[in-house]
Amino acid sequence: MNRLDATFRQLRAKGEKALIAYVMAGDPSLAETERLVLELERNGADIIELGVPFSDPIADGPVIQQAAERALRSGTSLRKILDAVKDWRRRTQVPLVVMAYYNTIHAFGEADFCLRAVEAGVDGLIVPDMPVEEAGPLEEPARRAGLALIFLLAPTSTEARRAAVAARSRGFVYYVSLTGITGAQLNNIHEVERNVARIRRLTDVPIAVGFGVATAEDAARVAQVADGVIVGSAIVRRIADRQQDPQLAAQVGAFVRSLKAAMHPVVPLSQSSGA
Prior knowledge:
- By secondary structure, the protein is an alpha/beta fold.
- It has a single domain, classed as Alpha-Beta Barrel (TIM Barrel).
- The chain contains 13 helices and nine strands.
- Strands 5-4-3-2-1-9-8-7-6 form a nine-stranded parallel beta sheet.
- The longest helix has 15 residues, at 248-262.
- It starts with a helix and ends with a helix.
């Protein structure tokens, strides 16, 4: 059992849902990312996703694209991120999930990357441009290394893809709440609830919902239907707005604290809506 599995189990025992916070590693620097990781954990983030900057992030909206550009300008690379994670592990045991585009991993070498990531202290991996049907070259090295490979599902995913992702995801299933790019708005929570229920019939792996979660109200609504709530662009936007603020980490931490607070207590959506 790695940190992801242990965290979801502990939260489930307490009747809580996981708050999964995303930051772009190296934005504005890896030193600041360390401060952010520690502050987010202190303020209630149960799992932290570390974005790996890439020149052509097709799944990301302008907020995260610009963060990737800033991180690349600061000299951030996948190898430097892994070196940083290894250092951070002396100060935190919060589960860390790397989110990287496949070209970055392929250039590193799939087997070498998986081993190095786990040795550094990475718990999971999300590759947004790698569909489950094409995951073979990475899936076996990840399994051998003990790295949880997390696949994405969208509202438009076919029944066959839902079944494949449900069977092969480790750590959690990442359900994308809407079609489009990161940073869009969450509109139809009832559709999210229906699709999460479909996935849940296929797997015991936790289901986390991302894309479109921007406010404490959004986080509370998603926590009613999913095991985890993923917040990315709303956090990255606050980092962008406070680049020169010496209290950057504390300010972002306060926002994350408000998200976590809104997720308690968790009332099933069917009860809260009177169904």
